[in-house]
Design brief:
- By secondary structure, the protein is mostly helical.
- It has one domain (45-175).
- The chain has helices at 2-24, 44-71, 73-89, 95-115, 117-124, 137-158, 161-175.
């Protein structure tokens, strides 16, 4: 009797292990479900074209912003020169601001000249249609590279003179705080 119980326990243990082992093995092939709206998935080329279109749009926005900032330089130069004149009338040292302003003023014509070719690149929009969609991938890549090169070259021509002017103005303002009236309680 003992042998029968021992045999039954071993048989039950082997059957349990076999059942668990078979449960882990898949009984049928798995298939991927389609997209919920029934369309086909996007290919890598379509995804990369979307990315290229985004880069093109962003590059155009950066070009427009850069052009806008360059258009403000004459007013900025006049305002800073007015600040220097008023500060000199008070007897304050403005040599650092004047030096930074002169450097800034001297690079503006070259920066405008460096910025100008971007307008022709955007107007021709080789590889893109009027809506900014890719029509010829290789031409579009070259167009984006050309516009990005114009943006980089314009920044290189500026040579950090705008930042130097800003820093000189900040240093001057920190050294000469405006007369603030303290409110009486």
């Amino acid at each position: 009797m003992r042998q029968l119980i021992s045999f039954t326990k071993k048989f039950a243990l082997v059957t349990l292990i076999l059942a668990v082992g078979l449960a882990v093995i898949p009984s049928s092939a798995a298939f991927a479900a389609g997209l919920p709206n029934g369309t086909t998935p996007l290919t890598n080329e379509i995804v990369s074209n979307v990315r290229l279109e985004e880069i093109w749009a962003r590059s155009q926005r950066v070009y427009d912003r850069q052009g806008f900032l360059l258009s403000l330089t004459n007013d900025l130069i006049a305002k800073v020169q007015n600040l220097i004149d008023r500060a000199e009338a008070k007897g304050w040292d403005t040599s650092a601001i004047q030096t930074a302003l002169n450097a800034f003023d001297s690079v503006i014509p070259a920066a405008n000249a460096a910025h100008l070719p971007g307008a022709a690149i955007i107007a021709s929009h080789d590889g893109f249609n009027l809506e900014g969609m890719v029509t010829d991938r290789n031409a579009a890549i070259e167009t984006v590279k050309s516009l990005v090169q114009v943006l980089k070259y314009t920044r290189t021509v500026m040579n950090g003179t705008g930042l130097a002017l800003r820093d000189a103005l900040k240093t001057f303002r920190d050294a000469h705080p405006s007369n603030q009236v303290t409110p009486t309680p």
